[in-house]
Design brief:
Layout (H helix, E strand, L loop, with lengths): L2 H8 L4 H36 L3 H17 L1 H11 L1 H21 L3 H14 L3 H12 L5 H18 L2 H10 L1 H22 L12 H12 L2 H31 L5 H31 L4 H21 L5 H12 L4 H7 L7 H27 L11 H22 L8
């Protein structure tokens, strides 16, 4: 039997469903992460070509998160009503349009509009995947599959670090985005043509009933207790890995551009390894009586602790600290599985997108907010003041610590 088949049998997931359900969505999610983090590497090029201030750069990059967040509630309703196949395929075409416009842009307004279209287009990447998992796979496999999907996305993150730095010289960032536009349309075709159709449990509900269910989800305190640590932890990680770690590494840690890209590659690789191992770790701990909720709680505490030396700007053991911070933060995605256990099967799309809208709103706020704080200190020679970084990162640390502490009060629960 082929090795890949034995791997999926050991993981107790059918290999054929991996090929026709998981793989097409994974192609789109790979691009979602690539788009999310590519600005960290091309930031200096954008600043040079468009004379961007730090707040402009923060706004531009976070426009992805803003449009992504604004569409999450309608997306949840559409996923529960029409299914993930049609929603994800259509939206990936929108991402392709945004990439094309970004490559053609001549001013900040066009860049921002293009970045917002990209965010809208990839907004169903993970949420559509999770909805597909609830339709095709048993619930106890969903944390593992979500971890694998995050792992695929992390490969996109890795691709958007040092490898991009190597090709920017001969090609330039505009040609890169033209290629991304073509790849986005290709991913849309894969999803639409390969993923099978399946009856969606929420299809019979009226539009009013579907949106009323969203309001009921937000009215639950147990939802907020599970979702808020996800929002703060992943929002901070995305804002930093996607933009601000790169200039921090050069301005505070004294690295050149190539070394900073290598550091980003290492932290992204740690995130990838942790995401692929998450399901296995959850299974092993589950056999010893440690629930996924406890793993989530422990991961958030470690994430906050690992961010302390980063916020203080310490120089020793930097790669180790960045790796621990990135790896531990993956525990936050367990929240997606836990919140689906609070609602009936017909509402799982809305439960996950109700969390995701908060996550990407926070990512937008953190990414723009860090730039705004940095702008309060005078820059020198294109570098931001280390004290400004300590102030901005200190705010993120306080938010992570508070959210992790509140998560400790959570209790096990199911719909």
């Amino acid at each position: 039997m082929p090795t890949i088949s034995r791997f999926f049998m050991a993981a107790r997931v059918p290999a054929n469903l991996i090929l026709v359900v998981f793989a097409p969505f994974a192609a789109g999610y790979y691009l979602s992460y690539f788009y999310r983090y590519i600005n960290a590497v091309i930031a200096k090029d954008l600043v040079r070509d468009f004379a961007l201030a730090p707040s402009d750069l923060g706004w531009l990059t976070s426009a992805y998160f803003l449009s992504f967040a604004l569409f999450q509630i309608p997306l949840g309703v559409l996923l529960d009503r029409f299914g993930p196949r049609r929603c994800a395929a259509t939206l990936m075409c929108v991402a392709g349009l945004g990439a094309l416009l970004f490559g053609l842009a001549r001013d900040l307004a066009t860049l921002s509009a293009a970045r917002a279209l990209i965010g809208l287009g990839v907004s169903a990447g993970l949420m559509g995947s999770i909805k597909a998992f609830t339709l095709w796979f048993p619930r106890e496999r969903q944390t593992m599959l979500t971890g694998w999907m995050i792992g695929v996305g992390s490969i996109g993150t890795l691709s958007a670090t040092a490898p991009v730095e190597l090709i920017l010289g001969p090609l330039g960032w505009r040609a890169l985005f033209f290629g991304l536009a073509a790849l986005s349309v290709g991913a849309a075709l894969l999803i639409f043509l390969i993923v099978p159709e399946r009856e969606v449990p929420g299809r019979g509900e009226s539009w009013g009933e579907q949106f009323a269910a969203v309001r009921r989800i937000y009215a639950r305190l147990d939802f907020w207790r599970l979702a808020l640590p996800l929002v703060v932890s992943q929002g901070a990680f995305q804002a930093l890995q996607g933009l601000w770690f790169a200039p921090w590494l050069t301005d505070v840690q004294g690295m050149d551009r190539r070394a900073a890209a290598d550091a980003l590659f290492i932290s992204a690789f740690a995130y990838l390894v942790a995401s692929m191992a998450l399901g296995k770790v959850a299974d092993l701990l589950g056999r010893r009586g440690i629930s996924q909720l406890r793993l989530y709680q422990g991961g958030m505490l470690v994430t906050a602790a690992a961010f302390v030396p980063i916020a203080l700007g310490l120089h020793h053991g930097l790669f180790v600290v960045l790796s621990i911070f990135a790896a531990a933060s993956i525990a936050a995605v367990i929240a997606y599985t836990l919140v689906t256990q609070l609602v009936p099967a017909a509402q799982t799309g809305r439960a996950t997108t109700a969390s995701n809208v908060l996550l990407f709103a926070a990512s937008f706020a953190f990414q723009w907010g860090v730039g705004a704080v940095l702008g309060l200190w005078p820059a020198s020679g294109g570098r931001y003041d280390p004290e400004a970084y300590r102030a901005a990162f200190g705010i993120l640390l306080a938010a992570q610590a508070a959210a992790a502490a509140w998560l400790l009060t959570a209790r096990e629960g199911r719909a």
